[in-house]
User: Which sequence fits this backbone?
């Protein structure tokens, strides 16, 4: 005979305002096998939990029902509590009186009646519960970081410094991400490359970090602690074991007319190239689309001049599969293609309308103009610059509804940099708001205004060309006037969007993205670096637009989760998984293809049946892969498969209790 | 290619301020075999006056002519050369098609069952269809001789985008495609779809003239020697007001303003008067005569 | 400039603003006052309140301010504002509905505009078609701008663009009936 305890929570007024908790408690006490019922203001709090412990002892309970908020909130809390008592953590049922009752109904009497029914169902179910036990999953203490930007590098360094092996897989030919492209970083105006390249160097040289550039994740199998990840390293055509990075090949390459992506196509690069001077690894790759040798079989100059014979035109992609215990997704961002969305700004037809990253390359001393701010159209110094913020952001109609968070700050930065370099220049900034939430951020913005930037509150309706300058038609809503600026150059500060292929990468790992493509965290406030999939973590702009300080903080947080996991040799598996009753299993294999996680397989087992030793084929469940979805239990004809914690019997008892059978 | 046969809504300006458009359009239509059959007893589309006054009137006046067309010319789509009329007619059809309730309501207002089937097109829309462009080019006797043209579409040809569904709403290029194919050199400029001021030229002339001055300024700054339009109201507001703007605002614009059909007509052999250039306030014949000449290369090919 | 006491704004004014917005199928709260509509408006230079300011007045419940503004009377209905609005608000319709309400309450913020539209509709009601020379002539009389565009008239007559003749529909009754059906509910015949 069960000895059930029922604990009804008020949840402050969240439940109590709509449900008569005392009445529910009294009703619970009348249910079969309930030996104790009580109510509490905040059952999840310390005193609330203490009362449960006390009741378990006092009334010798062997299972409990907590009638409170959603199990998604506190089921884990109650399980942890039970693990400190004599009761098995799975001898628990949660009746959701909040999200499924008090929060969705307004009629007091009807909500109370429903609450009673929910408790009756939970009591009927818990009466049938059996203790469940976790298994131990071995943890492979190697981490995979997808993305080698500042987020990926920081996470990798933290994990590597803790003594674990880390592999970084990076799509481009160098790590570093967007950060080395920037000139100076707010609010301190540190030179971006000066703070980023030491990290790149440290990452490249760290004994615990393996860097795979020009590489992508192709396939993911496995589960937390044991992810089998297939990585494709695209052919570089240069043997990095032999290459010394001398750079002779790049200087001799006759094909130097390829538009240079690093400098936003403002200048050109050769076919054998390093993306930029401080690239890590500091070795070149060959661009197979433009190399004359690879496309037409002519040339071969670089191989001739290479002092170590490192060039290999026969190079092929390398595909490897390795096992990792944890994954950090740090796939970063791109800027939105504003040219496709805003024809009223020229749609890309005016070369002097550029985006933020383009401006960074102009103002950067290592850029194509050696740090001189010059018009892309004619190379002249612009005397009148307009900066437009919120281009593509906060625009549900044509762009993205969200705010891109960093542009108010880097817009002020661009204004400051322009006015600093062009002493007789005039700078106008069109804004909707100025968002400066960080330390010393607002002071930074004040400085930009002090430098002479005129901030105009309003959007720009149109940019058009007249003669050799651009006309910007905007509005200052504060004065209530339309304003026009005859500008030499316009900088559009555009929305951040998830980097190309980040959605595909997330899907490979089985994690969710939101409607804008940002990888979704497990809980926006309390679990910002975890995903809904155990063992897969998030860092940086992959999770949403943010600046460098927040990115580095988040990367450290993700690393600490990984280090926490690696500090154990094994993990607890999920016990609410499918279970096979081999005496009923006919070995038909119907269930195997149904499982979306590949957790079922047919195995030969030897059993004793009717005093005879028999060897036959039955189904086996991989307790680490099984996610407890229950699909197989429906397919199983003899009914040999059942879901622990949600057995057919348990569920039928709930239904019977509801229908008062 | 679909047959070039349409029912025709001339609009109230067709015989008066828009006469040059009508005349040149008829000339071109004749040459390319475009049949435009006038809707019998069509009435005014109501244009901005009905629109500003009452939704029912705004839908009913155009719907009457559209319903008449469907009866008189079953199966034919309607061409409205004036883009103001085009906007009113197409807008009414769009509204009637949004729900059965709407369709019945407007039918009740006009005392006729309006099916809202026949589509409404502007003359420009028909002429820029790729096979019609080819047909037009094949009928040329002369080319547009590299005339530097700023193509001016006006606002109602492209907006609202969900009704007109015509080209790009900020930077259309179909007229350029047509005229470049005929030998012009259309310029890239920034005021293709900016409003000409509409009836404000009568109501608040000074305000409206500012809008037109900006159009002339940008066209000239982008290297145009002429502006080409496809709407009689736009044409009137640009052509008739050019000299007024010069004398009142101290500017010096001398950009002829042509209907695209006038240029096509001249390239097909019309004299300036036949093409309608005699009706212009801003002298337009000289430039046309200078540019539109026989191209020795194409003369053998086209016939 | 003066201080607007928002606590004194009458419920009726706020409700009227909502009603106007509803006629235009617009949610006033969508507008975040970015000013893009005003910046692109070809007539804004001569408006006392730009489209953005009209929206602001309605949001604040200062409906009378919007109804007595010249902005909506100058609006050319060119739809640039609606097309570019980041919140997909049909501002053109708002301007139209404000003007209609303004007119219904007897405002004539730009008398010439009212004179023109009235004369136009009168002419079309009578003849089924607009006869431009008569529209121009009668407009000049109505508006008091007797000499407007008179210099162009001789040239137009000489070129044959306009004449004395009127053109009209055959079935004038049909057009007149349409007017009556459409405008009956307003209790006002044009």
Assistant:
């Amino acid at each position: 005979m069960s000895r059930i305890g029922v604990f009804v929570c008020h949840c402050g007024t969240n439940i109590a305002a709509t449900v008569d908790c005392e009445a529910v408690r009294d009703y619970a006490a009348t249910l079969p096998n309930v030996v104790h019922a009580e109510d509490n203001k905040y059952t999840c709090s310390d005193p609330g939990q203490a009362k449960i412990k006390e009741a378990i002892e006092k009334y010798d309970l062997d299972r409990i029902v907590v009638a409170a908020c959603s199990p998604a909130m506190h089921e884990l809390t109650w399980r942890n509590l039970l693990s400190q008592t004599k009761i098995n953590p799975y001898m628990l049922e949660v009746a959701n009186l909040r999200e499924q009752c008090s929060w969705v109904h307004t009629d007091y009497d009807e909500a109370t009646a429903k609450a009673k029914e929910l408790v009756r169902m939970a009591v009927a179910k818990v009466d049938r519960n059996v203790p469940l036990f976790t298994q131990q999953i071995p943890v492979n203490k190697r981490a995979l970081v997808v993305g080698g930007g500042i987020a990926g590098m920081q996470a990798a360094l933290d994990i590597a410094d803790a003594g674990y092996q880390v592999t970084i897989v990076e799509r481009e030919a160098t790590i570093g991400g967007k950060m080395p492209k920037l000139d100076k970083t707010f609010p301190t105006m540190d030179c971006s490359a000066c703070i980023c390249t030491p990290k790149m160097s440290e990452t490249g040289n760290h004994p615990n970090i393996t860097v795979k550039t020009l590489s992508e994740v192709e396939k993911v199998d496995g589960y937390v602690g044991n992810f089998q990840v297939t990585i494709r390293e695209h052919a570089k055509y240069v043997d990095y074991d032999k290459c010394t990075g001398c750079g002779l090949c790049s200087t001799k390459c006759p094909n130097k007319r390829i538009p240079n992506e690093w400098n936003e196509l403002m200048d050109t690069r050769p076919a054998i190239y390093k993306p930029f001077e401080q690239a890590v690894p500091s070795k070149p790759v060959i661009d197979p689309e433009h190399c004359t040798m690879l496309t037409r079989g002519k040339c071969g100059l670089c191989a001739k001049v290479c002092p170590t014979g490192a060039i290999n035109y026969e190079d092929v992609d390398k595909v490897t599969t390795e096992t990792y215990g944890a994954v950090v997704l740090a796939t970063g961002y791109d800027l939105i293609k504003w040219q496709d969305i805003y024809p009223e700004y020229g749609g890309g037809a005016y070369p002097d309308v550029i985006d933020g990253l383009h401006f960074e390359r102009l103002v950067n001393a290592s850029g194509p103009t050696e740090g001189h701010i010059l018009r892309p159209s004619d190379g002249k110094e612009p005397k009148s610059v307009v900066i437009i913020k919120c281009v593509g952001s906060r625009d549900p109609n044509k762009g993205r509804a969200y705010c891109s968070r960093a542009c108010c700050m880097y817009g002020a930065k661009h204004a400051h940099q322009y006015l600093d370099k062009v002493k007789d220049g005039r700078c106008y900034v069109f804004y909707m708001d100025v968002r400066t939430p960080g330390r010393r951020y607002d002071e930074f913005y004040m400085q930009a205004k002090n430098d002479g930037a005129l901030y105009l509150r309003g959007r720009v309706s149109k940019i058009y060309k007249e003669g050799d300058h651009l006309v910007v038609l905007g509005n200052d809503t504060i004065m209530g006037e339309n304003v026009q600026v005859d500008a030499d150059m316009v900088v559009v500060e555009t929305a951040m969007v998830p980097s190309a292929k980040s959605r595909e990468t997330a899907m490979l790992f089985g994690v969710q993205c939101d409607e804008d493509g940002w990888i979704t965290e497990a809980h926006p406030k309390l679990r910002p670096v975890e995903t809904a999939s155990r063992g897969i973590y998030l860092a940086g702009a992959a999770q949403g637009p943010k600046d460098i300080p927040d990115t580095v903080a988040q990367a450290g947080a993700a690393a600490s989760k990984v280090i926490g996991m690696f500090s154990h040799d094994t993990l607890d598996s999920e016990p609410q998984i499918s279970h096979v009753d081999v005496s009923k299993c006919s070995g038909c294999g119907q269930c195997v293809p149904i499982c979306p996680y590949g957790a079922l397989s047919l195995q030969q087992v030897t059993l004793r049946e009717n005093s005879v030793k028999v060897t036959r084929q039955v189904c086996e469940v991989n307790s680490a892969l099984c996610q407890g979805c229950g699909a197989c239990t429906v397919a199983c004809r003899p009914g040999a498969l059942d879901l622990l914690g949600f057995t057919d019997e348990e569920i039928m008892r709930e239904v019977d209790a509801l229908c008062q059978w | 290619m679909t047959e070039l046969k349409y029912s025709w809504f001339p609009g109230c300006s067709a015989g008066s301020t828009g006469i040059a458009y009508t005349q040149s359009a008829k000339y071109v239509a004749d040459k390319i075999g475009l049949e435009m059959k006038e809707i019998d007893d069509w009435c005014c589309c109501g244009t901005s006056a009905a629109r500003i006054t009452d939704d029912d009137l705004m839908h009913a006046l155009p719907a009457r002519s559209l319903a008449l067309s469907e009866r008189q010319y079953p199966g034919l789509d309607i061409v409205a050369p004036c883009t103001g009329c085009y906007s009113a007619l197409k807008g009414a059809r769009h509204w009637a098609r949004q729900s059965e309730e709407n369709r019945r309501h407007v039918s009740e207002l006009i005392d006729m069952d309006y099916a809202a089937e026949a589509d409404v097109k502007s003359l420009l829309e028909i002429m820029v269809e790729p096979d019609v462009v080819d047909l037009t080019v094949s009928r040329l006797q002369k080319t547009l001789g590299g005339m530097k043209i700023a193509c001016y579409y006006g606002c109602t040809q492209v907006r609202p985008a969900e009704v007109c569904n015509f080209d790009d709403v900020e930077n259309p290029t179909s007229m350029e495609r047509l005229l470049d194919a005929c030998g012009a050199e259309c310029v890239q400029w920034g005021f293709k779809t900016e409003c000409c001021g509409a009836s404000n030229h009568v109501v608040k002339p000074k305000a409206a003239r500012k809008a037109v001055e900006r159009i002339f300024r940008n066209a000239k700054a982008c290297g145009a020697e002429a502006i080409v339009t496809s709407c009689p109201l736009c044409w009137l507001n640009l052509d008739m007001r050019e000299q007024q703007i010069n004398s009142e605002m101290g500017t010096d614009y001398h950009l002829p303003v042509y209907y695209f059909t006038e240029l096509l007509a001249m390239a097909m052999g019309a004299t300036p008067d036949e093409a309608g250039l005699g009706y212009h306030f801003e002298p337009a014949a000289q430039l046309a005569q200078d540019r539109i000449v026989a191209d020795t290369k194409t003369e053998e090919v086209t016939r | 400039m003066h201080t607007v006491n928002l606590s004194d704004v009458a419920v009726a004014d706020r409700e009227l603003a909502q009603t106007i917005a509803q006629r235009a199928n617009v949610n006033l709260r969508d507008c975040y006052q970015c000013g893009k509509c005003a910046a692109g408006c070809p007539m804004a230079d001569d408006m006392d309140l730009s489209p953005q300011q009209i929206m602001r007045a309605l949001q604040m419940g200062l409906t009378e301010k919007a109804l007595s503004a010249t902005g909506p009377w100058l609006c050319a209905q060119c739809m640039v504002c609606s097309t570019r609005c980041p919140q997909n608000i049909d501002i053109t319709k708002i301007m139209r509905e404000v003007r209609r309400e303004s007119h219904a309450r007897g405002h004539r913020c730009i008398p010439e505009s009212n004179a023109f539209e009235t004369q136009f509709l009168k002419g079309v009601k009578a003849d089924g078609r607009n006869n431009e020379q008569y529209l121009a002539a009668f407009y000049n009389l109505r508006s008091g701008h007797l000499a407007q565009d008179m210099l162009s008239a001789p040239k137009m007559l000489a070129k044959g663009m306009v004449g004395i003749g009127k053109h009209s529909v055959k079935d004038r009754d049909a057009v007149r009936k349409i007017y009556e059906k459409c405008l009956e509910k307003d209790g006002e015949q044009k």
